[in-house]
Amino acid sequence: MRNTAKITTAVLAAGALTLGLTACGSGKDAASDTSGPLIVAASPVPHAEILTFVKDNLAQKAGLDLEVKEFTDYVTPNTATEDGSVGANFFQTQPYLDDFNKKNGTHIVSVVDVHLEPLGLYSNKVGKAEQLKKGATVAIPNDTVNEGRALQLLAANGLITLKDGVGTAATPADITKNPKDLTFKELEAAQTPRSLEDVDAAVVNGNYAIEADLKPAEDALVLEAAKGNPNSNLLAVKEGQEDDPRVKKLAELLTSPEVKKFIEDKYAGSVLASF
């Protein structure tokens, strides 16, 4: 993407370990220097694509200097936001953010909900979920919230039954009924679409499905319902940066009619505007 810095997970992870969760350097960082560009960490698809649309079509008129940095994992965008390497991030849901803050002692807060990426079950072996054979292997994301979402999706479609009240904290240990004796392969979320050749089915996050040329609205055997779904993807900043005028401008642009139309036209139901 034009004017987008692609950063490898390995390099970013090394940087995060070096910096820890403290502000970097003795000068101004990306979060505190409101006179500079707003640097936003984002997953490549659809987050960076949406931000690039804003950058190329809306930001200049709104007086916003926007820089987009792509990240390929679900950890470094938050550590970079916490340590001030970037001023905001756009890649995660509120349940994931709450869990991340709790486990890592970070102080990141939501600014605005932007869109929903429905989680889906995909397979190269069967055309319907009920066609999964007894003992089939299903890949699921291994991070706390997305694993719980994956299991809730399977439960909602009758493939398993979960303990009451486990919500997005569900793990395979919370399965009370498994009539097909499904075996679960827990993988990093980004790896789930790549596992489709090796497993019978995989539950894949919407952004990773799109990156893998899957069309959630067409290819998923079962898909999360949008109505009442708490898993909208959001713009987030370190606590205390919510009133940064650059952040406020970006929040307005991300929830504008122009962005809603872009999402509808480009993703054709595979990504849904939350505003």
Q: What fraction of the residues are assigned to beta strands by DSSP?
A: 15-25%
How many angstroms does the end-to-end distance come to?
Answer: 26 Å
**Name of the CATH architecture of the largest domain:** 3-Layer(aba) Sandwich
Q: What's the total count of β strands?
A: 14
Report the principal-axis shape: globular
Structural class: alpha/beta
Estimate the mean pLDDT confidence.
89
Spans of 5+ residues with little confidence (pLDDT < 50)? 1-28
How many individual helices? Answer: 9
The CATH H-level homologous superfamily of the largest domain = Periplasmic binding protein-like II
Q: Any idea how many domains? A: 2
- Largest sheet report: 7 strands, mixed
Strand order of the largest sheet: 1-3-2-4-13-5-14
At the first level of CATH, the class of the largest domain is Alpha Beta
> What is the helix fraction of residues, given as a range?
25-40%
**Pattern of helices and strands:** EHEHEHEHEEEHEEEEHHEEHHE
